[in-house]
Amino acid sequence: MSDEPRAQPNVVLVVMDDLGNGDLSCMGNAILRTPRIDSIAADGITLRHMYAASAVCTPSRAALMTGRYPQRVGLPKVLNPRDGTGLSPWEYTLPRLLRDAGYRTAMFGKWHLGCRPEHYPTRHGFDEYAGLLYSNDMHPVELFEGEEISTADVDQATLTRAYTDQAIAFIERHSIERHADQPFFVYLAHTMPHIPLHVEDEFRGRSAGGTYGDVVESLDHHIGRVLDTLDDLGLADDTLVMVTSDNGPWFEGSTGGLRGTKLHTYEGGIRVPFVARWPGHIPAGAVSDEPACLFDLLPTLAGLTGATAPRDRPIDGVDVSAVLTGGSTTQPRPLFFFHWWTLNAVRWGRWKLHLDRFPRDPSRAQGRELPQLFDLELDPAETYDLKDRHPDVLEHLTGLAARFEDEIDAQRDAAEARAAGRATAGAPR
User: Rounded to a whole number, what is the distance in angstroms from the first to the last CA of the chain?
Assistant: First the structure.
């Protein structure tokens, strides 16, 4: 390989399932030990206000893959193996974008964007795939290699190691044997720490955080193996590594003091840990409180790699490469958070407006305390409602919400009309 830095970075994106914003020691956790992920933060940047686009799996991953709100993609809820829906072939995904820019692409781990053949990762831009098509609490639990079931007898305690082994093998094979001058994209989507929790014997009982802690510390160890592989192959300086989660923690795990958990559009359900390293480009030890969302990764990676994001559809993400490299954005933009098709909350700058919520509390007469306005700089735990103190902010965010909800509703109505037209056209006469 050439000693010159690569113009297009390799990209390794690690996404954990249900890892909390406060589950990493670099995010203040004093119980769990995550030294290898911490090293990414020390050598790069921590985005302390990174959001998933949803508080649950499928819509969050749909947004990550497309750069679009899951409501635009038509995947606003969690899919199960019986559902016939999934990611449409019309969507232009992150791996497809990078493959079109010359990358070799591979995914190892949880997909959860449909399990019919037309929904498989290999139909959406990945050259290679191995993993589970949905969550580990859904049945049957089947491990896929490419588009074929490799085993229906899955030992879930081995999944974290197996995904990592496959990612490392891909990087080694790609870099040494066949594609030394071609960049690669690895999407390592770990099944854990989603329940049911499973961990290999080597890590069982090691953490002060119980089985959940054992699982997180195992994940940290195996992420470290990927970092070691990049070092051993001389690829560290040419590789952008990012580590995050798809939403907040569920029954265990730490939100870092934020209100709510998975399922909720309070901060604890949607704010996720995010650390990134790219030596020579991202300053070491940087920290940013600029709000960002995982759907920003598609336009950001397009900008960093010279790829072209689609212009024939709304792309909700924005290029935050300036934030990654230690700068800031020029002005706040709203971020909208839904439960299914219901707009629950809007973040704009320091402000967060709650208009609805899931689950609703019957004792509160279907949300009679709503709307609620929180100042996240002053009150990150969303404890004190300030709508009466800032009616101008309330009016502005309410207007933003109404206009965006109208936009999504109009798109949904148009999509349903097109679907009805296709069904009518195909009906027997």
Answer: 64
Global pTM exceeds 0.85? yes
pLDDT of 365 reads 57
Domain ranges of the chain: 10-324, 335-425
Q: Which CATH fold topology does 10-324 show?
A: Alkaline Phosphatase, subunit A (3.40.720)
Would residue 115 show up in a list of annotated catalytic residues for this protein?
no
Q: Which of 112, 119, 190, 194 is catalytic?
A: 112
Q: Which of 54, 16, 10, 94 is nearest to 277 (CA)?
A: 10
Closest residue by Cα to residue 106 from 200, 189, 24, 219: 189
Q: What are phi and psi of 61, to 5 degrees?
A: -75, -35
| Residue 13 tokens, joined | 């994106």
Confidence (pLDDT) at 3: 47
Residue 68 — left, alpha, or beta (φ > 0 → left; ψ -120 to 50 → alpha)?
A: beta
- According to DSSP, residue 68 is labeled S
Helix, strand, coil % (nearest 5) of the chain? 35, 15, 50
Q: Is 390 a catalytic residue?
A: no
Angstrom CA distances, 178 to 98, 150, 165, 182, 324, stand at 18, 25, 19, 9, 31
pLDDT single digits (tens) 303-353: 999 999 999 999 999 999 999 998 887 678 999 999 999 999 999 999 999
Q: Which residues on neighbouring strands pair with residue 292, listed in sequence order?
A: 50
Token code pair at residue 369: 């305390």
What is the C-alpha to C-alpha distance for residues 214 and 193, in angstroms, rounded to an integer?
10
Cα–Cα distance between 333 and 215 in angstroms, integer? 36
pLDDT, position 417 = 80
Contact call for residues 276 and 241 (beta carbons, < 8 A): yes
Q: Return the H-helix or E-strand segment holding 184.
A: strand 184-189
Rounded to the nearest 5 degrees, what angle is found at the Cα of 126, between the Cα atoms of 124 and 128? 140
User: What is the number of helices (H) and of strands (E) in the chain?
Assistant: 10, 17
Strand partners, 132: 143
Task: Report the distance separating Cα 142 and Cα 135, nearest Å.
Answer: 10
| Cβ within 8 Å of residue 232, ≥6 positions away | none
For residue 12, what are the β-bridge partners? 186, 241
Q: Which fold has domain 335-425?
A: Arylsulfatase, C-terminal domain (3.30.1120)
Residues near 14 by Cβ (< 8 Å), separated by ≥ 6? 188, 189, 190, 223, 226, 241, 242, 243, 244
Q: In what order do the strands lie in the sheet with 351-354?
A: 335-339, 342-348, 351-354, 372-375
From 26, 49, 57, 139, active-site residue: 57
Which neighbouring-strand residues pair with 131? Answer: 144
Cα separation, 267 vs 279, in Å, equals 30
